[in-house]
Amino acid sequence: MKKRFFILFIAIILVIAWKSLSSSPDGAPSGYANDKASSYKTCASSGCHTGMTAINLPNAIITSTIPSTGYVGGQTYHVTASITSAHTRFGFEVTPQDSVGNYKGNIIVTNNSLTKVTGTKYITHTQSGNSLKTWSFDWVAPAIGSGAVQFSGCILSANNNGSSSGDSTYKIGFIANDCFKAPSNIIATPKGTSSTITWDKITCGTGYKIIYHILGATTWKTLTLADTSSKILSALSYNTTYEYSIASMNGTTLSAYSPIKQFTTLCQCDLPTMSIDSIGTKAVRFVWIDDACGVRYKIQYRKSGVISWTSKVAIDTTTNLVATNMTANTIYEWRFRRECNMAGTYSSVWSATYQFTTALLKNPQVVRTNKIDNIIINVYDDGSVRKFIKQ
Fold first, then answer.
1. Same domain, 168 and 58
2. Do 327 and 217 sit in the same domain of this protein?
3. What is the pLDDT of residues 7-47, one digit of tens each?
4. Edge to edge, what strands does the sheet with 168-176 contain?
5. Does 269 map to a domain?
6. Do residues 119 and 54 share a domain?
7. What range defines the domain where residue 251 resides?
8. Do strands 168-176 and 53-55 pair parallel, antiparallel, or not at all (unpaired)?
9. 66 exposure class (CB count in 10 Å sphere: 0-12, 13-18, 19+)
């Protein structure tokens, strides 16, 4: 009987020892960081610990010094995992991988007594570090063009009761984007035989490459540029749709191209034919023939010898404009142009400067008389009104 009790006692001790070892006080085994390479295993899903499994709760976080614009290849960044909990024992495991589970960059242990690398691509706590709630390490970013890196990890919060019950496992992670990518916010502003392309520069690019062609063409024209944020594409055809795309460059390394975009050049914006068909003492009427190209017409006039112009704009489909508030018997200069976009940045040249003289003011003639009691109201052909009191 005593022998049986002794054997049972030894078995219990072995089970307790196995439990103690399985809880991994000296770091989590490789592949328990909720990562792609390990099919998203965690300490909870493996049976080592029970308890809640949550994703990026406020009390379990991972942060880094990687900027929002993305990591720069070869640069070193600081990464920290931390937890807020009333438990007494803690642990973590983190790994940086791409979308298919390849280890990206290099983990650098910054405190050998508290953290260690396991399985070459995971970092975890040591036994001395399992009473901490915060762990840090450095990460050297991979070469430019490596793409987005997923930092996956888990933090364990354990109650240290000698079993797997009552513990909590938290999933943590973030995506570090590669700063070396195609530029963003790409905008084309077309004119007749040109189009200005603008974009937001990336922080780790040293140049850009633009490809473009007429929609439907099979070959591309290529422009290689120094570090800039705009380029004018010239020698284009009027009223034609083009496709274009932009990639970033770092030395001779080329990023992926941006999604293909389109723009359509505008029509041939020629100088319109314009003339004056009537001149009064205080007004003049300009006339022209509208066409399908212009979206508006601009006329400028000024008294002869004056520096500044008065500008008038007529919208498309209009064929005349009356300018008023002029001075009688006065020489004026005038010029005009066609504008083929609403911003006025694509237009014909200005016409030559012409002259006209407003009409001589004559004595006004009464065209209508009204009588109200003893008041006589005369309306004259120049639009003026005069009142007289009848004696």
1. yes
2. no
3. 433 333 333 333 433 455 677 899 999 999 999 998 776 55
4. 53-55, 168-176, 149-158, 89-97, 122-125, 115-118
5. no
6. yes
7. 184-264
8. parallel
9. buried
Helix, strand and coil content of the chain, in percent to the nearest 5, comes to 5, 45, 50
| Residue 113 CA, distance from chain mean position | 44
Q: How many domains does the chain have?
A: 4
CATH number at residue 211: 2.60.40.10
Strands (E), 237-273: 241-250, 253-254, 261-264
* Structure confidence at residue 11 (pLDDT): 37
389, 374 Cβ separation under 8 angstroms? yes
Of 140, 172, 153, nearest to 72 (Cα)?
A: 140
Tokens of 145: 């063009």
Residue 369: Cβ-neighbour burial (10 angstroms; 0-12, 13-18, 19+): exposed
> Encoding tokens for residue 254?
């080329």
Instruction: Give the Cα separation of 50 and 282 in Å (integer).
Output: 93
CB-neighbour burial class of residue 379 (10 A; exposed 0-12, middle 13-18, buried 19+): middle
Domain co-membership, 43 together with 154: yes
